[in-house]
């Protein structure tokens, strides 16, 4: 499958690299307003291909996206230390105003996979600008936060993160909701699993893991300026779910008519992802506190779109 990546910075290049290393695409094309950067990323990643799977990497203008089935949108500005994702909105909405037309003209059949922040609102921006149906404009949403949650829970319980089934819901951002009440280790609720293994999930453990997930981006940006490996792998995972029509259940963001009483909103819930994009949305079992937190997260996002359209 041919995949386009618009925005060949840290996130775009990490996605291209993950796709090449995982065998997630037969062709990856980078487009960036910095043409030399796009070309350099393609050349550098192509040197990993002999150690990985067959994949052709190149760079070009928008017309090079012709035939792409998925286009990842990772163009725009990123957070500086201490900056929130929501503060990027007006700058990245402006970037998308120029990007989406170019992508749609060159690759009208492509699904859009949005990574630029604030990713939930940028997914709404991309939907409106593209005219595509909502199931074909997917934001990476909380796929990364879910990975962070599973990684920290797995480490606490002493099991592989792949055996942890837990989701982060709502905004990919400060108001996100860790869905503790539906979290499972194997088939067991995590609290029961932890108690059996001598790794109880106390209030202090919950608070540590919550902060570990919610503050991860701020910590990493403070230390190295940006985050890219986690989201790069997450984007490649979504592309593979689409390419192989996996019906994978992933926490991604699409525009929904209503969530918890908030109309016309993009945020993350567990969703079934395959060749047609998102084919179903699941509402997990939640405690009253989690339901209220999801509603509050939807309201934060809704408020941030005021004045945008
Ligand atoms: N969804 C998620 O979980 C994550 C999202 N992000 C977001 O991804 C975005 C990209 O982050 P980085 O790659 O670290 O930034 P970066 O600055 O390394 O790369 C952004 C690229 O976009 C390009 N660009 C800017 N305006 C453009 C335009 N009009 N047309 C074409 N290319 C354009 C720039 O030349 C640059 O190469 C940011 O908004 C960041 O917040 C970052 C990490 C995780
Ligand atoms: C930057 C960002 O959105 C993240 O690492 O979660």
UniProtKB/TrEMBL annotation:
Positions bearing Phosphotyrosine: 218
Pathway(s) served: Fermentation; pyruvate fermentation to lactate; (S)-lactate from pyruvate: step 1/1
Transmembrane spans: none
GO cellular component entries: cytoplasm
Binding site for NAD(+): 7-12, 32, 62, 76-77, 92, 98, 115-117, 140
Residues binding substrate: 79, 85, 117-120, 145-148, 227
MF (Gene Ontology): L-lactate dehydrogenase (NAD+) activity
Pfam families to which the protein is assigned, alphabetical: Ldh_1_C, Ldh_1_N
Residues annotated as binding beta-D-fructose 1,6-bisphosphate: 150, 165
Subcellular location: Cytoplasm
Gene Ontology process terms (BP): glycolytic process; lactate metabolic process
The protein's enzyme class: oxidoreductase
Role summary: Catalyzes the reversible oxidation of malate to oxaloacetate. Catalyzes the conversion of lactate to pyruvate.
Family the entry assigns: Belongs to the LDH/MDH superfamily. LDH family.
The protein's assembly and partners: Homotetramer.
The name this protein goes by in its record: L-lactate dehydrogenase
Gene, per the UniProt record: ldh
